[in-house]
Amino acid sequence: MTTPPPMSLLAELTHRCPLQCPYCSNPLRLDTRAAELDTATWCRVMDEAAIMGVLQVHFSGGEPMARSDLPDLVRHAAGVGLYSNLITSGVLLNPASLAALADAGLDHIQLSFQDALPDPGDRVANMTGAHAKKLEAARLIVAEGIPLTLNFVVHRQNAERVPAMLLLAEQLGARRVEIAHTQYYGWGLLNRDALLPDRAQLALTEQAVAEARTRLAGRMTIDFVTPDYYAEEPKPCMGGWGQRFMNVSPTGRVLPCHAAESIPNVEFPSVAETSLADIWENAPLFTMFRGTDWMPEPCRSCSAQTQDWGGCRCQALALAGKAGAADPVCHKAPDHGIVERAIAARPETPPAFRYRRYGSA
Ligand code: FES
Fold first, then answer.
1. 8 Å CB contact between 3 and 280
2. Which residue of 206, 214, 287, 343 sits 20 to 30 Å from the alpha carbon of 198, by its own alpha carbon?
3. Distance CA 65, CA 140 (A)
4. Does the pTM of the predicted model rise above 0.85?
């Protein structure tokens, strides 16, 4: 293999999810339960990943705990030497299911929260009692001794509570916390007016993170993801297309990122037909935006091209209508006006959420 292997495999075990978050990162068209890969195929996928040199597997969804074979998959990952991380909402976690995962050798859990407070958190998830279940899940995970990361998605309706989120993470004993502003593609783009903060709210969140980093230095790591609509440069989405990550969808499509199925006029390779190594090395979907050869101007002559890798291809497609365009969030991009107009058109009062329901498009 001439291309260095990916560092991580994102195993999207299912699109089923009890929550209905308006910024859901799953594709607009969800896979059905009947079409999901079976246990044996997921185990084969992990075997192939380990042979390629992949180091980590992230079990994700939807809600991966909706799969009853999750402990078997975790055990298999441990058996082939993959570090395993479970990305979960926590609402299906209980002492018995956690004990089964710990016994199988799960290395780490990333638990998502919608807010620091129960009522607004339950409103975003559109599930009564979700926040209380997450608090209980966090306590069980810490008591079990599994390293815990908390993830808070931040937007205009909860930005003022970032200090409370950081405090909650500290109180719950998390080793790491992610304060991640919403990204605006897929369902998040549909709800952009209900979610996009203003510059003053962004500044507030930056200040809260800076203060907490000083206060908690050496005790808790804090990751901060800015809303790239306000950034000068685009983010290096996925660490560069086809360079660090490989996603496998619930039905076995192999993708460079979770939103890649929006890319038109390209075949989506499947674990049913081709090996992971062959897909990584040769599939047109993976090679089309890898490296710098594909870049248009101004990326082609930009000194940051190997830092940001041209930004996010799915965002370029969603906003500029072309996956191969410069990411419009970049202030040098010819389509940057689209982002400026979206910020200027942000309504004073946020509209109602359009909830993401499994089973509805
Ligand atoms: Fe697909 Fe950014 S989400 S490249």
1. yes
2. 214
3. 15
4. yes
